Amino acid sequence: MKSLRVVLLNEYELTAEHVRTARTNYGSFDIVLMTNPNGTATKDALDTAKAMQISILSWRRFLGRLGSR
Questions:
Q1: Which of 17, 12, 11 is nearest to 45 (CA)?
Q2: CA distances (Å), 16 to each of 3, 10, 52, 64, 68, in order?
Q3: How many CA atoms lie within 13 A of 68 on its CB side?
Q4: pTM value?
Q5: What's residue 45's pLDDT?
Q6: I want to staple 44 with a disulfide (CB 3.0 to 4.6 A). Which of 9, 16, 35, 59 is the partner?
């Protein structure tokens, strides 16, 4: 099973800048886990993550991805 590096961010509105700052602060990772249950990701955040080959996931989608591995 391939290892996954996960960054947990608790932003209410996850922006592209949050994704870029996380990459600068934490290095390479595969997934941004949005831990704020009311949080959403902006279109720019999703586009930036896609360009960086990073997934942005909620808890539900994250646990589903782990379960399918």
A1: 17
A2: 25, 14, 11, 24, 28
A3: 6
A4: 0.91
A5: 98
A6: 16
Q: How many residues does the chain have?
A: 69
* Rounded Cα gap, residues 24 and 29, in angstroms: 11
- For 31-68, write each residue's pLDDT tens digit: 999 999 999 999 999 999 999 999 999 999 999 988 88
Tell me the β-bridge partners of 22.
Answer: none
Task: Indicate the residue type of 48.
Answer: T
Amino acid identity for residue 40 in this structure: T
Angle between helical axes of 16-26 and 43-51 (0-180°, round to 10): 40
